[in-house]
Amino acid sequence: MNYLAEIKSSDAETFSGVSEAEVQEAEKRVGMAFPETYRAIVKEFGSLEVGSDEIFGLGVEGYLNVVETTLKERQIAEGKLDGYLVIQNLGTEGILIVVDEQDRVFEYQLGEFRNLLSTTAEYIKGLL
Prior knowledge:
Layout: H1 2-8, E1 13-14, H2 20-30, H3 36-45, E2 48-50, E3 53-55, H4 66-77, E4 84-89, E5 96-100, E6 105-109, E7 112-115, H5 120-127
Antiparallel strand pairs: 1-2, 2-3, 4-5, 5-6, 6-7
Helix pairs in contact: 1-5
């Protein structure tokens, strides 16, 4: 898991990690398993900020909380985001970065998905 070390040694602002029990509670609330790399990242860091990029996670309140944001965006998307976690809102043109249980990262905009051919760890490393 060298990506965790890369995040630690980067300029990313991290928060406090969370327990396995907190991850499991979050998974119950969103109705899906967190992919392995995302699970490791939230357990270690909670959530991340890399410059102006905010990666949603756990142990934080409000829109940075992946559960709160995912559930809110799923309501707006009328079912299209079921089975995805919203890990980032790019803040432009309604573009969201989402990840599925297989750790595939997609750009989601107006009901359309674009596969970024990346895992959560690769995506975050690309921001560092």
